[in-house]
């Protein structure tokens, strides 16, 4: 499917592709590894999704450039991470480009849903970040400048002992390894970073972070590096993750009784598929950590 218009990246008028906001390899994985083979999107919880969100943004050429960064990211980071291969993972110049393209797409998508979500000064800052990212993607500048890209690779949390200072919601393991969504994190109303969660792999595009040195082991470098080793993150970020998991839980609470019944039937009818799935494993981890009642609480 195509549509004639101005490409958001190169700004040439061209036939625009119907391209994914979150890369296709992410929705493919979500489909394959879920118990029932369908994607559920929090925006339309009562509808079954078979594909990720798309927009007519990019010309064929720019879409192919994005694909050239997505392929190595899927092969050398995303898939090894899901297979739980020994970390950390080595990367080349494609990873910072990939991460920047994800942050750039995520902010554009969030702006397309609500143009007026930022106050004047913040709106200028967000536009500065978008400009830096675009110029870096097009090769007009050597790096994204202060609008750094960071990556965190999550895994299941083994026990409460690791995180005893925070009262976590009963879906936290499922949230960490399965959740896919995009969001702009704020502090006192000002944008801090755009957070693109693609299952275990998440990208943070810094917008208004004042103390980037509080983040260690997460920053992506221009030419090469390793990702997925030891990290230091500010304690506020854990609080942010907790609040996102709680939001996801309450959005699932909005699911209709009919839909819940369908999910239960899916589990019943595809027992083997459900037991093999990563979602099933993450649900077991939640039961072990929080007990059954908290695991299946939807509010
Ligand atoms: Zn283009």
Could you explain the architecture of this structure?
Helix content is 45%, strand content 19%. It is of the alpha+beta class and 299 residues long. It has one domain (2-295). Strands 7-10-9-8 form a four-stranded antiparallel sheet, sandwiched between helices. Strand 8 (180-187) and strand 9 form a beta hairpin. Helix 3 runs antiparallel to helix 4 (120-137) and helix 5 (172-178) packs antiparallel against helix 9 (278-290). The radius of gyration is 19 Å and the shape is globular. Mean pLDDT is 85; it is low at 42-50. The site of zinc ion has 8 residues, from strand 5 and helix 2.
Which key features would you list for this structure?
299 residues; alpha+beta; 4-stranded antiparallel sheet; 3-stranded antiparallel sheet; globular
Task: Sum this structure up briefly.
With 299 residues, the protein is an alpha+beta fold. It has ten helices and eleven strands. Helix 3 packs antiparallel against helix 4 and helix 5 runs antiparallel to helix 9.
What is the topology?
Layout: E1 2-6, E2 13-20, H1 24-33, E3 39-40, E4 48-49, E5 54-59, H2 60-83, E6 89-91, H3 94-113, H4 120-137, E7 149-153, H5 172-178, E8 180-187, E9 190-198, E10 201-206, E11 225-227, H6 235-253, H7 257-269, H8 271-276, H9 278-290, H10 292-295
Antiparallel strand pairs: 1-2, 2-5, 3-4, 6-11, 7-10, 8-9, 9-10
The structure holds zinc ion.
Zinc ion (ZN) is lined by residues 7, 9-10, 12, 58-59, 61-62.
């Amino acid at each position: 499917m195509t549509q004639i218009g101005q490409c958001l990246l190169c700004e040439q008028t061209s036939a625009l592709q119907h391209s994914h906001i979150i890369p296709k390899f992410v929705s493919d994985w979500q489909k394959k590894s879920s118990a029932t083979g369908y994607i559920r999107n929090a925006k339309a919880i009562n509808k079954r999704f078979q594909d990720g969100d798309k927009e007519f943004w990019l010309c064929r050429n720019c879409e192919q450039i994005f694909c050239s960064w997505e392929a190595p990211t899927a092969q050398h980071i995303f898939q090894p991470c899901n297979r739980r291969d020994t970390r950390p993972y080595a990367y080349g110049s494609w990873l910072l480009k990939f991460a920047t393209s994800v942050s750039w797409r995520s902010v554009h998508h969030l702006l397309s849903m609500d143009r007026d979500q930022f106050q004047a000064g913040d709106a200028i800052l967000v536009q500065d970040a978008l400009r830096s990212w675009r110029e870096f993607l097009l090769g007009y500048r050597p790096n994204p400048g202060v609008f750094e890209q960071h990556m965190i690779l999550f895994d299941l949390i083994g026990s409460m002992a690791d995180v005893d200072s925070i009262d976590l919601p009963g879906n936290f393991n499922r949230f960490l390894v399965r959740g896919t969504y995009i969001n702009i994190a704020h502090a006192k109303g000002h944008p801090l970073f755009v957070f693109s969660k693609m299952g275990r792999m998440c990208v943070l595009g810094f917008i208004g972070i004042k103390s980037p040195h509080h983040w260690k082991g997460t920053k992506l470098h221009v030419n090469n590096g390793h990702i997925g080793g030891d990290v230091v993150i500010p304690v506020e970020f854990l609080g942010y993750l907790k609040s996102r998991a709680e939001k996801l839980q309450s959005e699932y609470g909005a699911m209709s009784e009919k839909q819940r019944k369908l999910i239960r039937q899916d589990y019943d009818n595809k027992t083997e598929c459900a037991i093999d799935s990563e979602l099933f494993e993450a649900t077991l981890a939640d039961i072990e950590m929080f007990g059954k009642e908290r695991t299946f609480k939807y509010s």
